[in-house]
Amino acid sequence: MLCVALCAAVVSATAIGAVHISAWHTLDILLNQTGIVHLPRTWAPTDEIIVVQLRLPRVLGAALVGAALASAGTLFQALLRNPLADPLLLGTSAGAALGATIAFMLPTIVWLGFGVVALLAFAGALLAVAAVYALASRHGQTPVVTLLLAGVAVSAVLTAGQTLLIVLDPVLAEHIISLYLWLAGGIAVQSWAQLGAIGLLVAFGLLGAIYLSPTLDTFALGEEIATYLGVRVERQKLAIVGVAALLVAAAVSISGLVGFVGLVAPHACRLVLGPGHRRLVPASALVGATFVVLADALARTLAAPAELPLGVLTALVGGPFFLLLLRHAGQGYRW
């Protein structure tokens, strides 16, 4: 059912835009592009160009972002044993933001379809998580509380550095609106090559998350019991953080900072499917992908011809959901 919902969301979002193309024509074009089905061309050639070259890469990019953030949220919630955990923890958002800020100071560079903003945001997110994990590790142990505190401290330092650059560098003053829009979130896919590279990273991360599912179930019992059951806790903890960081870094490189997806999707799936991660991880990825595809479609159309920041719409849904979670937590929410 979730796969069908995602496919329906992709077709609907691809059909929506400044140029009206019916959903049936869009579906025919997409089926024809697969090569599995050869349908008579009853649509205009310009419609096919709009669907395949302009809209579809962005819609698929939104699906990848949603799947990556939702899966990363599932990993962090299992690691921290807290349903309020968000994937933009442990310095990932601050590192990506600082990387993007530095990128706006540099000349335009394109590599494998990626602009300098996407590349430095990806690198910043990964380096921030690596710094947090290194600071939190002591004598081969990485307590969860220390990991969180290190994430808060590193995020604060990186955010301060970003603010300092914005204030002192005159070049950034000219690009402050573009930087703000990037920070507010929005799907930016420049080419199919870029989409393919991000797709490979997200696929690798999803496979890693599914592979770690039994470990995630064991972590729910606590680290001490997991150790008694033969789990190499520190090694698995590093693997979880690494996979989650890769997913978040891949997402922010083409979307900026999009919040609440990794909070809403895993928790909604957990309420329906239970805590077993073999089903929870793929289900969360599908729900997150569908959520972001629909949110991005609304961002493109609600204020057309202007475009709303994607992060605004996800926050409008995720913010109230987060408050509901806090209310349950205050009433003795049980993991």
Structure description:
By secondary structure, this protein is mostly helical. The protein has 15 helices and 2 strands. It has a two-stranded antiparallel ribbon.
- The proportion of strand residues reads under 5%
Overall radius of gyration? 20 Å
Largest sheet: 2 strands, antiparallel
Helix content: over 70%
Shape: globular
Q: How many beta-strand runs? A: 2
- How are helices and strands ordered from N to C? HHHHEEHHHHHHHHHHH
Distance between the termini: 26 Å
Q: How are the strands of the biggest sheet laid out side by side?
A: 1-2
Averaging pLDDT over every residue, what do you get? 84
Low-confidence stretches: none
Given the helix and strand composition, which structural class is it? mainly alpha
* Number of helical segments with 4 or more residues: 15
Looking at this protein, list some descriptive labels.
mainly alpha, two-stranded antiparallel ribbon
Helices, strands, pairings?
Layout: H1 2-15, H2 23-34, H3 45-80, H4 92-103, E1 110-111, E2 114-115, H5 116-136, H6 144-168, H7 170-174, H8 176-184, H9 192-211, H10 213-219, H11 223-228, H12 233-255, H13 261-273, H14 277-301, H15 310-330
Antiparallel strand pairs: 1-2
Helix pairs in contact: 1-2, 1-3, 1-14, 2-3, 3-9, 3-12, 3-13, 3-14, 4-5, 4-6, 5-6, 5-12, 9-12, 13-14
Provide a short characterization of the protein structure.
By secondary structure, the protein is mainly α.
